Amino acid sequence: MSSEKIIEHSEAAARFNKDVERVNWHDETLWFVREKRDRSAHQIADWELLRETASQIKNNVLSNIHDYLIEFEANAQKNGIKVHWAADAKEHNEIVHSIMAKHDVKQMVKSKSMLTEECHLNDYLAEKGIEVIDSDLGEYIVQLRKEPPSHIVLPAIHLKKEDVSETFHEHLGTEKGNIDPQYLTESARLTLRDTFLTRKVALTGVNFAIAETGEIVVCTNEGNADMGAHLADVHIACMGFEKLIPQRKHLGVFLRLLARSATGQPITTFSSHFKKPRDGKEIHIVIVDNGRSTQLGREDFRNSLKCIRCGACMNTCPVYRRSGGHSYHNAVAGPIGAILAPNLDMSKNADLPFASTLCGSCTNVCPVKIDIHDQLYKWRQVLVKEGHTPTSKTIAMNTMAKVLANPTIFNIAGKSGRFVMKNIPGLVNNKMNKWYDQREMPDVPEESFREWYKKNSRESKAKNNE
Amino acid sequence: MSSKADILKKIKQNQPAFVTELPNLNLLGSEQFDILETYKTVLKNIGGDPVEVTNYSDILEYIKTNYAIEKRIITTITELSGIATLDWTNDDPHSLQDVELNIIKAHFGVAENSALWVTDELLGQRISPFIAQYLAIIVHKKDIVATMHQAYERIGNEEYGFATFIAGPSKTADIEQSLVLGAHGARGLIVFLLD
User: So what's the pLDDT on residue A3?
Assistant: First the structure.
């Protein structure tokens, strides 16, 4: 994917904002989800204690993950599960393919897994002649449209029902112009049911992996992970190593938080615990690093690995809501994506930590208390230091620093600035000036505060009255 | 070096030097509310139907009245053999694709989210609660706990190959946030609350 030209967040956001009505709709739709989250959270008297507890459990996991991984693997193997380890995306994809090849299977049904998006598994398998069908309705829609998901929980949140109707008309032969969500969902149900019934290999993500028991938990509303896994001969579950939690009872904490934070539901419809394969069938778990161990070593950023992928930070983010998930050019969008992505590739993702107002709303809703906006701020400093920000910005910042540090220069700069804005406004009010992009420049004051103060301070007034 | 050894080595080097203690969970789950009423309200809110019954003949009566009993109905409960078949548990799971209604028991329910805990031994086959067009689950009123903390206390170290919490019918809102019941799994869920 490295040859692909990346459109920077600000540019992509500008394009997204051309359709005002649609942006407003996108903004409101996500805010509606955020409000559902609030209503749901406020019904739990112990909500803040739950968040704190979840955060502490995850801190414990990060500080002891080496031992938990060994414990998890041993218990999973005891349960008859095959465990694989992948250092990076490439190895992950190769492992998945090798399991398919061993069983001589050319088709896979997949439920939601952001990790496989991160690893670009679908593209890899397509090259190997393997057909993958994404079975989560949102993912199915974006897959038919050859788009990536724009949200980790709501993959097709950027689309309107008219878009879905057209896509289904083209691919599933639904009635042209029928935009009824019930009808469209039913059509997908019928098509995908046939898929579930005919696939020998099902791949799912993992929400939680329990060290103590060696089992994994997969949460869905649609039941698609279960339809795939229980009808297939082989179930492959892919997870980043940070999905581990110590004990089964800790699920009580995380399952209370996950769906409420994500969509405002009290729990997902299905929270499935896979411990052992069915008789004669196989479960494989692929544990993936792909940069996570590096992130673990970055003290300022390791907390990002506590994420349980609820998407609450996206729904609340004023920038995400008005720029759309695709503008983040990363499998995980929004604030959490913006602190995870630079770890994967600093130069490619240097724009993302700047796609934020640092308002802190993400941090306030995060169910595991990740300091997201602090990390966005810290990433900016790392990226500037390592030379990943545009030269124009660096020059501007350096100039600004010089001007602000020297009273004489500051004075001259202020005077000339006011002169220019008053007499040659075209020099400032043009496309070269980023501040002018979205706003009018202010009226020019007659004098600076310093000049005013000289005239009006108590001392100078006293002098004048003498 | 294998990837496993390599990953574990890097993790050991990079994880924080001191282990953070696990928190105490005993402070959680002390919320006080009417368990049965909460259960019913939450279930209705997420698209399920609670039906209070006193015995199995009530259940039989309800099903005969509300479902097309000429279609395929399966169960794992011997008391319901009059309206449903019991001999499918060793069949190819794909053969359950034409099941209209599946009636199973749950170990217990959870009031705060209306979830029901089911394991292999109650399911007959793992696919059974997902593949049926409609699902009915029976739970004793006395077997409803308040929150997920009590739920996992009750589960403890229980042994199972597969288990799941089921809360309401399968659903999606992936098309413009419009809620549609019956995504891939059951289109409707009846919960029989047994005295």
Answer: 46
A211 touches chain B (CB under 8 A): no
**Which residues 22-51 of A are in CB contact (within 8 Å) with B?**
29, 32-33, 44-46, 49-50
Q: Do B7 and A289 touch (CB under 8 A)?
A: yes
pLDDT digits (tens, 9 = 90+) for A9-41: 999 999 999 999 999 999 999 999 999 999 999
A270 residue type, one letter: F
Max CA separation in chain A (angstroms): 103
CB within 8 Å of chain B, chain A residues 91-130? 91
- Domains identified in chain A and CATH numbers: 44-290 (3.40.50.10420), 305-385 (no CATH), 394-465 (no CATH)
Query: A349 by DSSP, 3-state: which?
Result: coil
Burial of residue A372, with CB atoms counted within 10 A of its CB: 0-12 exposed, 13-18 middle, 19 or more buried: buried
Q: Who's near A28: CB < 8 A, 6+ residues apart?
A: none
Q: Residue A130 contacts by C-beta under 8 Å, 6 or more apart in sequence?
A: A97, A100, A105, A106, A107, A108
User: Each residue of B163-172: pLDDT tens digit?
Assistant: 999 999 999 9
Shortest distance, CA B18 to any CA of chain A (angstroms)? 7
Q: What is the distance between the alpha carbons of residues A137 and A188, in angstroms, rounded to a whole number? A: 7
Tell me how many helices (H) and strands (E) chain B has: 6, 11
Q: Where are the domains of chain B?
A: 33-194
Query: Which of B18, B152, B163 is the closest to A249 by Cβ?
Result: B152
Contacts of A421 (CB under 8 A, 6+ apart): A428, A441, A444
To 5 degrees, how large is the angle CA A99–CA A243–CA A50?
155
Structure tokens at A169: 């008309």
Nearest CA in chain A to B17: A63
Q: Report the C-alpha gap between A388 and A400 in whole angstroms.
A: 19
Q: Which CATH class is domain B33-194?
A: alpha beta
Interface of B with A in 121-140 (CB under 8 A): 125-127, 130-131
- How far is the alpha carbon of A6 from chain B, nearest alpha carbon, in Å? 27
Contact at CB, A222 and B172, closer than 8 angstroms: yes
- Reading the block at residue A14, the tokens are 């500008």
* Pairwise CA distance, residues A149 & A131, whole Å: 18
What's the complex ipTM? Answer: 0.98
Q: Point out which residues pair with A264 in neighbouring strands.
A: none
pTM: 0.93
Question: What local confidence, expressed as pLDDT, does residue A406 receive?
Answer: 87
Between A29, A60, A69, which is nearest B19 by CB? Answer: A60
Other CB atoms within 10 A of residue A447 CB: 13
B28 vs A46, A137, A141: nearest CB? A46
The torsion region of residue A392 among left (phi > 0), alpha (psi -120 to 50) and beta comes to: alpha
Helix (H) or strand (E) holding B111: none
Do A32 and A283 meet the contact criterion of CB atoms below 8 Å apart? no
Residue A402 tokens, joined: 């010089």
Whether B15 and A231 lie within 8 Å, measured CB to CB: no
